[in-house]
Amino acid sequence: MTVRIYVVPTMDSLLAQSWTLFALSLSIILSRLTFRRLMLKSFAKLQADDWIMAFLLLPMTASVVIAKTASDTHSDKHNTYQYIFEELQIVMTWLVKACLLVLYWRILYVRTRRCNV
After folding, report:
1. Which residues touch 46 (CB under 8 Å, ≥6 apart)?
2. 2 occurs within a structural domain
3. How far, in Å, CA of 54 to CA of 46, rounded?
4. Is residue 76 part of a domain?
5. To bridge 99 with a disulfide, which of 52, 65, 75, 104 should be the other Cys (CB 3.0-4.6 Å)?
6. Which domain holds residue 74?
7. How far apart are CA 75 and CA 31, in angstroms?
């Protein structure tokens, strides 16, 4: 007979994970925008997927702030913060999906355009 022990994450571990993910994501997004700026030689030439990634920083920052606020709150507002946190996670997922869709469309468009020439 095997005994399984499930560890439920605490709010402190959620907060630490949120800050770690935020720092990692921020560094990846900023390095991507820096590289694209160097490659295109202007911020005006950035394309839709670059701007989507820049816009992604807003709900990402808000989710870390909500996680911090929810960890400090032990009242009826905790459920509200949890709901807002989950909604922000959905928004971030859809923004990443939109960015990948634009990125793949651009790659496919360039590839088919080169084949037709």
Report:
1. 33, 36, 37, 40
2. no
3. 11
4. yes
5. 52
6. 11-116
7. 39
